[in-house]
Amino acid sequence: QVQLVESGGGLVLAGGSLRLSCAASGRTFNTVVIGWFRQAPGKEREFVAQIRWIGGSAYYADYTDSVKGRFTISRDNAKNTVYLQMDSLKPEDTAVYYCAAKVSSPSKYDYWGQGTQVTVSS
Question: Which pLDDT tens digit goes with each residue over 61-74?
Fold first, then answer.
């Protein structure tokens, strides 16, 4: 059974940093697309970043425009873990952050974690 568990959320001052982790289990995830999403109060869930395998040992990262240059997604396949390094955090980054995986289909995220709260105070 596939499971995704996020950790690393918390309260941070604006301009600070946090690193979120997404630990995956239940299968090998080396070639599985893993993404991060977030949902702020009263808003819809939005895409933040994803990392996808493009062949050999190469991966490619995509980001939503609002986090480009501030967030970095990476993965450690030996640990079956994907990270989201968040720097220069802003109050508008406050949200519950979820990781998700495209396991059964390349076109949709079908497994989700439970989420971790990130709060950025000004």
Answer: 999 999 999 999 99
Distance of CA 63 to the CA centre of its chain: 10
Q: What is the pLDDT of residue 28?
A: 82
φ/ψ of 29, rounded to 5, equals -115, 10
Contact of 22 with 75, CB cutoff 8 Å: no
Residues 6 or more apart in contact with residue 4 via CB below 8 angstroms: 22, 23, 24, 99, 100, 101, 111, 112, 113
Instruction: Give residue-wise pLDDT tens across range 35-67.
Output: 999 999 999 999 999 999 998 889 999 999 999
The whole-angstrom separation of Cα 117 and Cα 103 is 24
Length of the chain: 122
Decide if 99 contacts 116 (C-beta within 8 A): no
Which amino acid, 102? Answer: K
DSSP-derived secondary structure letter, 77: G
Beta bridge partners of 35: 50, 100
